[in-house]
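To whoever is on call:

I kicked off a structure prediction for a single chain this morning and the downstream step that reads the tokens threw a length-mismatch warning. I double-checked the sequence; it's 109 residues and nothing unusual in it as far as I can see. Pasting both halves so you can look.
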Amino acid sequence: MSKQSTDCRPDPDCCNATAFARSTVSVPVAVTPYMDTSAGVQIRCNGNAIISDVEADCEETGGISFVISQRICVEMPFCFTAAVEFGDTELSNCRVGLGGCRPYPEPTE
């Protein structure tokens, strides 16, 4: 007597078996990074300018030197992205058997 079952439960009236297929799947992937800086740079003053290190030599040379410092905010918008391309999928080392999915031996070079 033959009985067909479409579910995966063991059936006492049939012989259950499991087959295993092992293979190596390879897909070449190329990633090309890209950064977009086309939005432009903006510079803004942050606070007031500061005058320091004043050295005046009014009597001898009539000169004066000093340093002007200004805190600024530089806005640099940019976008990091990447282009990804996939090549053709390759299948190799295909084997079918009843022994389960044991690990492949390490490749030797």
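Update from on-call: the warning came from a stale cache, not from the record. Cleared it. Sanity check on the structure: The chain has a mean pLDDT of 81.
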